[in-house]
Design a protein that fits this description.
This protein has about 90 residues and is an alpha+beta fold. It is built from four helices and two strands.
Length: about 90
């Protein structure tokens, strides 16, 4: 199954195979593709925190309701939204 097929077929993943690794290039393609989604006022009010190291994934797991899959994944991504993006709309 390709990554795209997996994205289209799955809605939730309860756990990850710790032997599988996603490459930096694959991750960049996924994020770049996700960023093509339209946003309000076309301001793309998001940033991504990408955790690759086991230590960082475990830290993120603590704030993700301690979901074990966060530290099991090859990489964990936190999408951070700017809730005040609209204040800068006119400047853009």
């Amino acid at each position: 199954m390709t990554v795209t097929e997996a994205l289209l077929a799955r809605r939730a993943v309860p756990s990850f195979d710790p032997t599988v690794t996603i490459t930096k290039d694959e991750l960049e393609v996924l994020i770049d593709t996700a960023c093509l989604a339209p946003s309000s006022m076309n301001l793309q009010p998001w940033e991504f925190l990408i955790c690759h190291s086991q230590e960082d994934k475990e830290r993120l797991q603590k704030v993700a309701m301690n979901q074990k899959k966060v530290s099991e994944a090859s990489a964990a991504i936190a999408v951070i939204g700017n809730t005040e993006f609209y204040k800068h709309a006119e400047a853009v």
